[in-house]
Hints:
Layout: H1 2-17, H2 22-26, E1 37-41, E2 47-52, E3 56-61, E4 65-71, E5 82-89, H3 96-108, E6 112-121, E7 124-135, E8 138-150, E9 153-162, H4 167-179, E10 182-183
Antiparallel strand pairs: 1-2, 2-10, 3-4, 4-5, 5-9, 6-7, 7-8, 8-9
Amino acid sequence: xxxxxxxxxxxxxxxxxxxxxxxxxxxxxxxxxxxxxxxxxxxxxxxxxxxxxxxxxxxxxxxxxxxxxxxxxxxxxxxxxxxxxxxxxxxxxxxxxxxxxxxxxxxxxxxxxxxxxxxxxxxxxxxxxxxxxxxxxxxxxxxxxxxxxxxxxxxxxxxxxxxxxxxxxxxxxxxxxxxxxxxxx
Length: 185
């Protein structure tokens, strides 16, 4: 009985010590646990993601960036999301010019920001936004996160979410995957 009480106390301490990120709080996310996962590293070994092993994943790189694209191709497009993550070489500064450029890119793609913010992500300055529009005949949402890693590097991740069903859950799944991301540099 004594050992069971100790185990319960340790379990409760672990649960209470796990700190939910500001981004998870913003979207009122619950912990997402995937079964049968695999670790995928970007081509240049800058970061690694833990994603379900059933997802289709592609890698891409050039001299300026290294990207991972992944999606659950076993589900309908309106039930899942497409995840892209990249480590980029170059400067990212969250100033007026950055926000104007972001707004211009969204306007060209007929997307409107419905929510955004500046948060810390993995202890680094980060800007994120959620936008909405139409794409391929579907209501389309894009969750985008840009995090400054150093003076000359930044990380970018996005989720393309088609349709309105379970939008918040799919955003939370994206955030959960990104929170488990590990930088290797």
